[in-house]
Amino acid sequence: MDLKSLIRTIPNYPKEGIMFRDITTLLADAQGFKACIDALSSKYESANIDVVVGIEARGFILGGALADHLGTGFVPLRKKGKLPGKTIGQDYQLEYGVDVLEIHEDALEEGGRVLLVDDLIATGGTAEAGIKLVRQVGATVVAACFVIDLPDLGGKAKIENMDVPCHVLMEFEGD
Ligand code: AMP
Predict the structure, then answer these.
(1) How far is CA 174 from CA 21, 61, 87, 156, in A?
(2) Is the C-beta atom of 157 inside 6 A of ligand 1?
């Protein structure tokens, strides 16, 4: 199935010069969404994952489905001020801005095996913050997966340099 053809590109969103790769068109397609989750989860069926950790907001949609597929729990990483319990936070630089990502400090077991998921990896700043948070609460990031990689921005290489193998379903040139 050609999943790439289900991604919609919106030029100059949210800022001039950004080619926004919109996965909502993929999610809305029943066969496409299923094929996407099958393709991501099949990599990790024997990886003994304990928890899927998803990054707000599109990582929640993919992460929930992945956790269901893998028979694991799900833990959200959220933008600042959204989680109700005690949190720890990590600053990160976005392709188009700066933000803070947070995790509940008691969300993961010490030594728990985590699969990190988001829709897209660009510069890798968001995923890097996510890995740091998971590590700060004592769990292990076994792998990270994304629907889309923008290889020209180097994020996947950056994350692999943190000893976290990455799996992506497709690439788009440029940013
Ligand atoms: P980065 O931290 O630079 O790897 O950016 C990844 C995060 O920003 C992900 O959560 C993406 O959803 C979002 N993002 C960055 N660039 C784009 C883009 N060109 N199209 C869609 N989402 C993007």
Answers:
(1) 11, 25, 35, 14
(2) no
